[in-house]
Design goal:
Blueprint lengths: L1 H27 L8 H16 L4 H23 L4 H21 L1 E4 L2 E4 L4 E2 L11 H35 L4 H34 L3 H24 L2 H12 L1 H5 L4 H27 L1 E2 L7 H13 L4 H25 L5 H22 L16
Antiparallel strand pairs: 1-2, 3-4
Helix pairs in contact: 1-6, 1-7, 1-10, 1-11, 1-12, 2-3, 2-4, 2-10, 3-10, 5-6, 5-7, 6-7, 7-10, 8-10, 11-12, 12-13
């Protein structure tokens, strides 16, 4: 049970990172990216191949993020001066193009070259060796600090909505709904934090490499979330929102809209590249088929569920998605015993599609999104 919780926590964290990159591009800037998986693919393969050449894992992951950001620069210069729909068309093609190139390319692995079709295995993974007791205690201390900061941040987030309810009486109904939503989400996140903390402490004490990877991914997610929250509230972030709503307005104010879009595409791509590095480390062996276009649309589901233009909502969307995924994988085969595995997979996709349809009717802005910041109509 502990190992399974660690696996779910790591998977959710990785795809929360992946979806945060997409949320920056679409939720905050209005850029429609249907090939987000391309950034993850480059990040994963760059990290793995560089680590085979003796490059330290941290440097390899950073280089993977830089290569993914460079892809965003290329796509931006190729499409962002054209109509908006060109970006969505090009990104779909680029995502599949990179996967097919990797599938048919000879890759430098150790002292030889192998076909990409055979995948890449036996590459270095961070924290794979059992550390001494002093280091393990330090890792448990980091996890404890992260849990405390998370719970404190949730409390402040709920308190902010509570204060808004008192001070903004003109929008009392909407503020009350926001407070109820935040309270519910806060309770869910608090319970998850406690569950992850307990399983993480157990996994770190009896050291399991996956627990070390979980801690590292959580730390990276916390850092990127913190920095993104600062960025989107800065003047830079306000320009992105203005571009999303009507790019003619920031143009009239003398802003270089094209360059802001390129920056958003690059930064979102770099975050997805980091997610790709963790994805590769979690799998321990990567193949081109691990990077199917479906993963892009999984990220879209996460962003839409939680609410576009809301980083906490994106993380909530990732939690809901993986909770649904784990629950249906566990219980559907027991309920529908006469269906094959392929039929069950199709049924799971159909159900989450139905959930999205209901959500679009009931709350088109997502669970934590705001109607005034809705970008679905663009």
């Amino acid at each position: 049970m502990v190992e399974y919780l660690i696996f779910l926590a790591t998977s959710t964290t990785i795809f929360a990172l992946f979806a945060l990159g997409l949320n920056l591009q679409w939720g905050y800037t209005g850029l429609i990216n249907f090939g987000h998986i391309a950034f993850m693919t480059l990040g994963a393969y760059t990290t793995v191949l560089l680590s085979f050449q003796g490059v330290p894992l941290f440097v390899s992951a950073v280089m993977g993020a830089i290569v993914a950001a460079f892809l965003g620069l290329i796509i931006g210069f190729a499409t962002l001066r054209l109509r908006e729909d060109y970006l969505s068309i090009v990104t779909i093609g680029v995502g599949e193009l990179i996967r097919l190139v990797v599938n048919n390319q000879e890759l430098p692995v150790k002292d030889s070259w192998i076909s990409g079709t055979f995948g890449v295995q036996s590459y270095p993974i961070p924290l794979s060796t059992t550390p001494n007791l002093f280091v393990r205690v330090g890792m448990m201390g980091l996890l404890t600090l992260l849990a405390i900061l998370t719970l404190f941040g949730l409390w402040r987030w709920i308190r902010t909505a509570q204060k808004s309810l008192v001070t903004d009486l003109g929008k009392k109904l909407s503020r009350k709904q926001e407070l109820v939503s935040r309270l519910g989400v806060g309770i869910i996140f608090a319970l998850l934090t406690v569950a992850i903390y307990i399983s993480g402490v157990i996994g770190l004490y009896d050291y399991k490499p996956k627990a070390g990877l979980m801690l590292l991914s959580l730390l990276v997610l916390a850092f990127i979330f913190w920095r993104l929250e600062i960025l989107v509230r800065s003047p830079w972030g306000r320009v992105l929102k203005a571009i999303r709503e009507d790019e003619e307005v920031p143009k009239a104010l003398g802003k270089n809209v094209f360059w802001y879009k390129v920056q958003s595409l690059m930064l979102g791509g770099a975050i997805a590249g980091i997610a790709g590095a963790f994805f590769a480390w979690q799998l321990s062996a990567i193949y081109p088929d691990n990077f199917q276009p479906q993963l892009t649309f999984d990220a879209w589901i996460m962003v839409i569920l939680g609410g576009s233009g809301n980083n906490i909502g994106t993380i909530l969307g990732a939690v809901i998605f993986f909770t649904y995924d784990a629950a249906t994988r566990e219980f559907l085969p027991k309920i529908f015993t006469n269906l094959s595995s392929d039929q069950l997979g199709a049924f799971r996709i159909m159900v989450i599609g139905l959930i999205l349809m209901i959500l679009m009717v009931w709350r088109p802005q997502g669970i934590l999104g705001k109607k005034e910041e809705l970008t679905l109509g663009k």
